[in-house]
From TrEMBL, chain A:
NCBIfam families: SerpalmtaseAlphaP, SerpalmtaseBetaP. Its cofactor is pyridoxal 5'-phosphate. Transmembrane segments: none annotated. Keywords: Aminotransferase, Pyridoxal phosphate, Transferase. The keyword Transferase applies. This is Aminotransferase class I/II-fold pyridoxal phosphate-dependent enzyme. Residues 55-393 form the Aminotransferase class I/classII large domain. CDD domains: KBL_like. Belongs to the class-II pyridoxal-phosphate-dependent aminotransferase family. InterPro entries: Aminotrans_II_pyridoxalP_BS, Aminotransferase_I/II_large, AON_synthase_class-II, PyrdxlP-dep_Trfase, PyrdxlP-dep_Trfase_major, PyrdxlP-dep_Trfase_small.
TrEMBL record, chain B:
InterPro entries: ACP-like_sf, PP-bd_ACP. Residues 2-79 form the Carrier domain. Transmembrane segments: none annotated. It comes from the Bacteria. This is Acyl carrier protein. It comes from Sphingomonas glaciei.
Length: 406, 82
């Protein structure tokens, strides 16, 4: 836009390639994959989308807690007793009894000394990483890290070093090249959300500790499901006690919204005063922390649900492979099963064909994906029945044949 | 051959592995615009350079390196620091 003879560029010009790509895709008549509305949600696994019964296979509702009667009752009660929201920061008027109880539930769940609840998981990474790694410190991170980890690095002043995805040797080499006396924070994820692969935390945590680094593990996609007590990949691989910070979210297995960090660090509580994404934002509504606390306590005893979800994951992974799809991992490693598409056009067409069949999955595309891949990301729920997994495989077969990707 | 020439030869060899389009490379060649590398390719390439010279190129530093020539000089500087 020009005004008064000024020739300054429109600040939106940098988005033009994306605008063009999006318009080209939609001009083929495809439904916009990023504009889907759930008109009614019937259960953790079924919703009405575009007037049609749709199986949900892209919700991250791994443990199906969103409609649990005890969780809902806790939320209703808190809403009645404490109102709709706190209207304030945790360090001012925004800490209610429920926030404390939620942090106690997290401490019980992870068996750790400290827990801090953030308003989202994104803010938990943003806050912890940017606050604890200062100007002369180093943050060493996996190249495929989530956007919230990169944004946490960008918000802080530390030196950022990336290493090749899940490459133990690449991490070790970089740690050895860093000044011995520099502060170091290694940031890892238990499950990487794009391909659903797990990290070799046992090796990575050991070499990080040997190099004197602190270790932060984001267990967003493993909480509740992976590990004997659902504490994540670090627990499953026997290294949870060596991890300094576990970051997680309430918006996946817990079934609501919010984020957290748990730790045994003796000075952890000072973060409540110095962590800007914690201090300068409104705290979660009382109903949300009440549902989260109840859900977290229920997740501890959810061994049957975990077993069923693993059975679902193995069956869907094996079934899709048998149909001829290329998957993100050789074996099922989590509740995420990524189906690799040949390109964005056929990925979008397949996404729409699945929706037509009555199945919702997530379409993931570059630059969010590794190596420029287009993925149909399936995330299973512990409440998907055996029958539904069968239906899902039938839908993939029909859609795959129609679009010509199998 | 000076140290810089030697570094230049090694960096050109590494660029060759990533220069899928066979674009001619000089000291003023820009990685993103001229070689048309996306951010993932750049990060892979940075990792290769780090391993070749046994150095660390932080993302903060990499953001300042736009051309082949500046990379050759930056690597020299970082090697000196090691």
């Amino acid at each position: 836009m020009k005004s008064g003879g000024c020739t300054a560029p429109d600040l939106f010009d940098k988005f033009q390639p994306l605008i063009d790509q999006r318009e080209a895709l939609l001009s083929t008549g495809l439904t916009d994959p990023f504009n889907l509305v759930m008109e009614r949600v019937e259960s953790p696994t079924v919703a009405i989308c575009n007037g049609k019964r749709t199986i949900l296979l892209g919700t991250y509702n791994y443990m199906g807690q969103t409609f649990d009667p005890q969780v809902l009752a806790a939320g209703h009660k808190a809403l009645d007793e404490y109102g709709a929201g706190t209207t304030g920061s945790r360090v001012l008027n925004g800490t209610y009894q429920g926030h404390r109880e939620c942090e106690e539930a997290l401490k019980r769940f992870y068996g750790m000394d400290h827990a801090m609840v953030f308003s989202t998981g994104y803010q938990a990474n943003l806050g912890i990483i940017s606050t604890i790694a200062g100007k002369d410190d180093y943050v060493i991170l996996d190249i495929d890290s989530h956007a919230s980890i990169y944004d946490g690095c960008a918000l802080g002043n530390a030196q950022i070093v990336a290493f090749r995805h899940n490459d133990v040797e690449a991490l070790e080499k970089r740690l050895k090249r860093l000044p011995a006396d520099a502060g170091k924070l290694v940031v890892l994820e238990g499950v990487y959300s794009m391909l659903g692969d797990t990290a070799p935390l046992k090796e990575m945590v050991a070499i990080s500790k040997a190099a004197g680094a602190m270790v932060l593990v984001d267990e967003a996609h493993s909480m509740g499901f992976i590990g004997p007590n659902g504490r994540g990949v670090a627990e499953d691989q026997g290294v949870l006690d060596d991890v300094d910070f576990v970051i997680g979210t309430f918006s996946k297995s817990v079934g609501t919204v919010g984020g957290f960090c748990v730790s045994n660090h003796p000075k952890f509580e000072i973060l409540r005063l110095v962590c800007r994404p914690y201090v300068f934002t409104a705290s979660l509504p009382p109903s949300v922390v009440a549902t989260a606390a109840t859900s977290i306590d229920l997740l501890r005893g959810a061994a049957d649900k975990r077993a069923h979800l693993w059975a679902n994951s193995r069956r869907l992974h094996g079934g899709l492979k048998e149909l001829g799809f290329t998957l993100g991992t050789e074996t099922p490693q989590s509740a995420i099963i990524a189906v690799i598409m040949p390109d964005l056009e056929r990925g979008a067409a397949m996404w729409e064909a699945l929706l037509h069949e009555g199945l919702y999955v997530n379409l993931a595309r570059p630059p969010a994906t590794p190596a420029g891949m287009t993925l149909l990301r399936c995330s299973l729920c512990a409440l998907h029945s055996e029958e539904q997994v069968g239906e899902i495989l039938g839908m993939f077969e029909a859609a795959g044949n129609r679009v010509g990707v199998i | 051959m000076t140290d810089r020439d030697e570094r230049k030869t090694r960096i050109h060899r590494l660029i060759g592995d990533f220069n899928k389009k066979g674009i001619e490379v000089g000291e003023d060649t820009r990685f993103a615009q001229d070689l048309e590398w996306d951010s993932l390719t750049v990060m892979d390439f940075v990792a290769a350079v780090e391993d070749e010279f046994d150095i660390i190129i932080t993302m903060n530093r990499a953001a300042e390196i736009e051309t082949v020539g500046t990379l050759i000089d930056a690597v020299g500087e970082l090697e000196g620091q090691a």
